Amino acid sequence: MFTPAQCRAARGLLGWSQRDLAREAQVGIVTVHQLEAGRSQPRRASLDVIQRAFEVAGVQFIDENGGGPGVRLRERELKKEPEKKIKKEDDQPVFEFPKDEQPGTPRQSKT
Q1: Which CATH fold would you assign to the domain 4-73?
Q2: What are the phi and psi torsion angles at 82 (to 5°)?
Q3: pTM reported for the whole predicted model
């Protein structure tokens, strides 16, 4: 589980308002407000969907491990560009582009 402070910090990392979190977790705004204020303990199911919404958005919850509980953003995977094969002919590199990226051919719009 996570603390009210972790909830506020996670929203801050993502730039989410309380309304954004409520929408993403599909809970009421009052649930989010009361959780963060520490006024009441929401049902376990509400906490689970809030935590899941944060995790899907890339937040990792850090347990209290001597330094106190916290949050951080998971490293995002970078998209890899298609590899271009390199051949050598007569000691000169020759680049082969993927078939859909042949130089000199017009790109088709994807509309």
Answers
A1: 434 Repressor (Amino-terminal Domain) (1.10.260)
A2: -60, 140
A3: 0.65
